[in-house]
Amino acid sequence: MFDTKMANMAYYNQILAHFGKPEMTPDQFAHAHMHTVDMALSSLFPDEKSHAAAEAFRKELNYVQFLKYIKIEPYLKTLLRKLRPGFKTAVVTNRTDTMSYILDRHELGDLFDLVLTALNVPRPKPHPDPLLKLLDHFGATPEEVLYIGDSTLDEQAAKASGISLAAYDNLALEARYHIKSLEEIEGIVFPEKG
After folding, report:
1. Total structural domains within the chain
2. In degrees rounded to 5, what are phi and psi of residue 100?
3. Domain range for residue 24?
4. Residue 52 three-state SS
5. Strands 2-3, 71-72: parallel, antiparallel or unpaired by DSSP?
6. Taking a C-beta distance cutoff of 8 angstroms, is the pair 37, 58 a contact?
7. Which segment of 94-103, 161-170, 179-188 scores lowest on mean pLDDT?
8. Cα(12)–Cα(77) distance, rounded to whole angstroms?
9. Are 143 and 179 in the same domain?
10. Which of 36, 53, 68 is at the close of a domain?
């Protein structure tokens, strides 16, 4: 839905800089970008004392200042409007307390029937918990759901839940569909129009 790479890079690098640490390496960023903020900070600050200090600083750091770096994916709003009301739409993310800011900033809140963050489930992605909660919420079967994701965590969660994955701009993922644009979702869910 969003390109959050620059926002996440700036966010974690600011936390590292606060503690006099160098900027993230590409491997550190790849991990941080996919995982929850707690998992990312655990990796960047592996000992208990520095991790606790990083968590405390993170809670003081207002994420709103990083929203300017987030870019909405082209065609997202158009697709969501075309899907509704015939389809239910949901967000499943490993973000924790920042998703509502992002949805508000891009005026997307009313286009989703459900928003599940890492705070809403016992185990976030790659575990299937958020997708299983989604199925339960809508009373749906895995065959009735299409999950769009771009990471190995998305692939693992989809596979474990039995839900089909549409891999967004990542040919390395094992998925039922591979798409380069959200516009391609229309051809999948409205095949008669294709």
Report:
1. 2
2. -65, -35
3. 2-68
4. helix
5. antiparallel
6. yes
7. 94-103
8. 28
9. yes
10. 68
